[in-house]
Amino acid sequence: MIRRCLTCLSLCIICIFYACSPSVVRPTQYSKDLVKPPQDEPCWVKRPNCTKTRGDEAIYFVGQSAAPLAHWGRPKRESLNSAMTDAETQYARFLGVEVQSSTKLEEALNEHSYQSQMSQRIPSRSNHLVSDLIKVDEHFAAYQETDEGQPLWTVYVLTKITQTTLKKHRDLIAKKKILKTESPPKPISSSQATEELWTAKVFNIDDMASIYVNGVVVRGCEFSRTCEVALNPHLKLGRNQIELTFSNRLGFWTYGYEVHKGDQLMYQGTCGKVWLYGCEWNISRGVMHRFKFEIDH
């Protein structure tokens, strides 16, 4: 009887120990042999050009998400964005552009607007990434999981750039004015000091936002960030065209903006909720929402 009681007590202590132990990460069925890649891993994960066909002159880049993130079913959107940002950063380095963050300029494809943005907004230490990368494929892998069985996903994306686009980017970057740091705005004169300051703020962004003054980007803002810019230093005498654009490159999209003149709220708009739900049941790519207005200066 005493022996039976001791056995039960030992089992209870073991159960309590495992129940109170912290959550740990353990290998999954995918990681039994990490020396060799999983059988379903595409060749391009290790060799980006392995799928090239005869006559294909495009250059390929593979992006990988920064860290494995736990999620049921399939990877989080954050992992997909991280992998795409890595691919864009690799392309920027290939071009010789120093990049600290990624802002895709898909909406700036016409030559005049594109050239203006490049000459005005791409200094030698640029925070903007000139990228027209085309997403070709994606691959998800979970080499580990939490003790609850939730996969820790790593995302890979295969992207390519055509030779035509690459040449356009290189020609623009090679111009001397692009390599010069953009001059700071001229100081406000005493006569202008009494003017009310116009400001534009963009927020609730999924995936990208840009603020234009007379066709030139004065500020770009990325996924889930909030960015604000003073418009007065960029205005010319007379009528000025202001445009806010919100672009999408993956899944659903959202936007939010406020425009102030001094302390007065002039314009505002919002749709969807970043990280939660999209603005519309529309997962197209490119510019999804525009807001335009004019300022007489």
3D structure, described in words:
- The chain is α+β, with helices and mostly antiparallel strands.
- It folds into two domains: 22-178, no CATH class; 196-296, Lipoxygenase-1 (Sandwich).
- Helix content is 23%, strand content 31%.
- Strands 1, 2, 3, 4 and 5 form a five-stranded antiparallel β-sheet that branches.
- A hairpin with a 2-residue loop joins strand 7 (208-213) and strand 8.
- The chain is globular and about 70 Å long.
- The relative contact order is 0.13.
Summarize the structure.
By secondary structure, this protein is of the alpha+beta class. The protein contains 6 helices and 13 strands. The protein folds into 2 domains: 22-178, no CATH class; 196-296, Lipoxygenase-1, CATH 2.60.60.
Characteristics:
Lipoxygenase-1, 297 residues, 23% helix, alpha+beta, 2 domains, 13 strands
Could you give the order of the helices and strands?
A: HEEEHHEEHHHEEEEEEEE
What's the main sheet like? 5 strands, antiparallel
Helix content: 10-25%
- Mean pLDDT comes to 75
If helices are DSSP runs of H or I spanning 4 or more residues, what is the number of helices? 6
Indicate the overall shape. Answer: globular
Strand content: 25-35%
**How many domains comprise the coordinates?**
2
Low-pLDDT stretches: 17-37, 100-130
- End-to-end Cα distance, whole Å, is 95 Å
The strand count comes to 13
Provide the structure class.
alpha+beta
Radius of gyration from CA coordinates: 25 Å
